[in-house]
Specification:
Elements lengths: L1 E4 L13 H8 L5 E6 L2 E5 L2 E2 L4 H18 L1
């Protein structure tokens, strides 16, 4: 498994003296540019490539709507 993190973002400014702290304290999921699991790319250029993100968002919004309606 491998993860590539883009540390050129302003959120990492001034943190290069401690790369681990830079990732842990300054990083977000938006800084992940590449993730490989079991040798397969699952995130490329910060986007999931193994699932349809729009479909996941749609299902989540539908579930949230149902929860609000039944509350």
């Amino acid at each position: 498994d491998l993860t590539g993190i883009d540390v050129s973002d302003i959120s990492h400014a001034g943190s290069f003296h401690d790369p681990l702290a830079s990732v842990v304290m300054c990083g977000t999921c938006h800084n992940v540019s590449l993730t490989m699991v079991d040798g397969k790319v699952v995130v490329r250029d910060g986007r999931l490539v193994t699932v349809d993100e729009a479909e996941i968002v749609s299902h989540a919004n539908q579930a949230a709507r149902r929860m609000i309606q039944t509350a």
